[in-house]
Amino acid sequence: MAEPPILSLENMALQQGGRWLFGGPDKSAKEPTGLDLHIGPRDHLALIGRNGAGKTTLLRIIADLLEPDRGERKTRPGTNIVLLEQEPDFTGHASLMDFALSGTNAPQAHEVESIAGQLGIDLTLDPANASGGEKRRAAIARALAMEPDLLLLDEPTNHLDLAAIDWLEAWLGRYKGAFVVISHDRTFLKRLTSATLWLDRGGMRRKEVGFGGYEAWEEQVYAEEARAAEKLDAKLKIEAHWLERGVTARRKRNMGRLEKLWEMRAVRAAMINPAGTAKLKLASDEDFKSKSVIVAENISKTYDGRELIKPFSLRIQRGDRIGIVGANGAGKTTLLKMLTKEIEPDTGSVEHARTLSGVMVDQQRKLLDPQKSVRQVLAEGGDWIDVRGHRKHVQAYLKDFLFDPSLVDAKIGTFSGGERSRLLLAREFARTSNLLVLDEPTNDLDLETLDLLQEVIADYEGTVLIVSHDRDFLDRTVTITLGLDGSGTVDVIAGGYEDWEAKRKASKKPAAKRTEKDTAAPKAAPPPPKTPTKSAKLSYKDQRDYENLPARIAELDDLIARGEAALANPDLYTSDPDKFARISKSLELAREEKDTAEERWLELAEMVEASA
Q1: pTM for this model (two decimals)
Q2: Do 402 and 547 belong to one domain?
């Protein structure tokens, strides 16, 4: 039997900026309709919606920090609700500890210190001198130490490095209470959530599946709406859905781009020697050199006696997408600055192609003048914008970046943080360049904008350097990962984050005890090549697996797709919970079998390649 909710919002509505953000009047109803929400004591909810849909505002209403215009808020007596804000206010606090112990429901100092120790944060720091990551860790320590019954998390992974994200995932995995989380980190959401709240055009839908089933559900909803609109011949209504229809089309196009990405990774993997070092080889070395745009030879950097980057060499080719990952302080920014010649290495040299022209896209959205209009930011007040050498109307260009064209004269100050980040991307991607440098580009972006960014990067004809902690984004985007583990060594891996993580796990175990899974390559595996002649290193069973696994993987892909489509039915859980559970279990087993099959095939492929 379902437990009663610990919090409920009933018929809630809110106006903002002269428009109904939530639950506006329904002209077809006798009474205005509002938003309803019920949160159970163990709900793990993903809150999804476009930038500007009101996700942060809804969290503030749940936390009783904002009063709606209409509706009723009910909580179970004694429920402790804690909000981890996206940008906590440290004003007036002499230290991070002072901030952590503040508030009406302040935690005990020893509890804060315990969590801070696990997160590796010095709470004696003055907030004025603390980095974004240090402030975020202090805010997390404060929130978790309050022992919440309902935890509200607004972009909790922003400014965190991979180690801190792993720690937070583990903590939330053990957490016995309820939480609602806003995040652009798909991996984080998939691992932790069991139900999804979707804010869309002033209303909210709920589905009892975690974020892993959200995209299939979203596409089904939009497809049903489009069919209904067409039946009614409601041309204006169809036009109002151009953004939503674009989401489905974009996602399908991105699947084709992912296949191209896997092919590019396979080519790059063939250039990296078996030891996985930075020395890359091609059949035609002269051809390789002619396509090189950045050549780093034996570069290193030492700070305060610590060898941050050990001697390292790399040739970056035109069209490469390079991801740089690692913990805070491991040297990501230092490596990026050396590759872009912003700083000089202590040893070695970095050479750029004479024609290299770069654009840096970093977290500059706070520098956008809030009093300027969109037209002024993009087109210097005019009607046309030069997009990489081609003239385009500014309103049409806005549509490309998921903005309503009517916002062309809106002031920047009326935009959410995520909308400002998207506008900054639109401005920077218009500039003519053949090198893009992206420093944490995914912060504050909604999921649709991340899909758009993935698409723009895939279609970009130049070279891309990306520093990011967003694992899913890297897996969907980069051809090579430069992984920094803090020891000074730079791992060069053909593929994304999961490829690097697999290598790290394998290297931590004694060679004699490694299993097929330990030596696995990425989940996003390249499509298998044609089956070669039998290698002397493959047993009969190995050869059979090598030949048959691609077909089995394709079968599993089809099975997974059908399972996800079935779970996307919004009525299945309530009408037949047993069937829902059976399909969910089958889907889980199919995914596990697919992962194992891909890992097994990749290991065999490496054996074939090594013996060729």
Answers
A1: 0.69
A2: no
